[in-house]
Amino acid sequence: MGRLFEEIRELVAIGHKEIVLTGVDITGYGSDLPGQPTLGQLVRRLLAAVPDLPRLRLSSLDPAEADEGLFHVIANEPRLLPHFHISAQAGDDLILKRMKRRHLRQDIISFCDRIRTARPDAVFGADIIAGFPTETDAQFQNTLNLVADAGLTHLHIFPYSIRTGTPAARMPQVEKAVIKQRAADLRAAGKSAMNTFLESRVGSRASVLMEDNGLGNSEHFVPVRVGPDLQPGALIDVTIGAVQDGQLIAA
Q1: CA-to-CA distance for 44 and 66, rounded, in angstroms?
Q2: Is the separation of the CB atoms in 61 and 84 below 8 Å?
């Protein structure tokens, strides 16, 4: 943990305004370290140890592993950004079991509901696989319904593709045309949910970290068009005036 803090201090010292904690399974952080610190403890200690860091973002989270300390820091630390990406993979319990996931459908919904209660402005993304072997129409519908039931907006959709030697490769496969259509249906649901969210931001304030060509990212990890005269790395507050081509437009 100390090595991590040292690296982040160095990045902040040279001008970085946002740090993203990323990894294959960051909610499992600390299980191999002395004292077995949790992700929640890491985030709390990091923000205390690097007070000059304006923005901290988390990458993919497993709802089955989130610790109480993480929920506490989400509720009480505004520098932890209100955008949370979930390693969901599916929204049907039997498919999740066959994927050997540790969570169920309701765990995803409860995870989002709990965070949304603590941070009403929170937004959620998810990784979802379309057409996992044995997936029926009804099971896919459970996954499609999860977009609305959990309030997901930032979707990463992956059509299932076979990997030789895996248990899934030996299961009955879904037809490729069906997989393609299911992926398209999920992407359409995600686009609709994102458009609804973007429209809801018109008239609100946003904190934007500028990247390039007048475009930056808000605390909700959505693109905001501000103006070409701002330097990459600038952190500014703007009022959202409109939505255009999937982007928020600063007034």
Answers
A1: 14
A2: yes
Size of the chain, expressed as the number of residues it contains: 251
What distance in Å separates the CA atoms of residue 140 and residue 232, rounded to the nearest whole number? 42
80/74 Cα distance (integer angstroms): 7
Q: Which class for 21: exposed (0-12), middle (13-18), buried (19 or more C-beta within 10 A)?
A: middle
Amino acid at site 37:
P
CA 35/CA 56 separation, integer angstroms: 24
Summarize pLDDT for 143-167 with one digit per residue, the tens.
999 999 999 999 999 999 999 999 9
Residue 109 lies in a domain: yes
How many structural domains compose the chain?
3
Answer whether 53's CB lies under 8 Å from 235's CB: no
Q: What is the pLDDT of residues 173-229, one digit of tens each?
A: 999 999 999 999 999 999 999 999 999 999 999 999 999 999 999 999 999 999 888
H helix runs in 104-216, sequence order: 105-118, 137-149, 176-200
Distance CA 20, CA 98 (A): 31
Residues 215 and 196 in one domain: no
Please write the tens of the pLDDT for every residue from 21-72.
Answer: 998 889 999 989 999 999 999 999 999 999 999 999 999 999 999 999 999 9
User: 215 pairs with which residues across the strands?
Assistant: 212, 225
Same domain, 113 and 177: yes
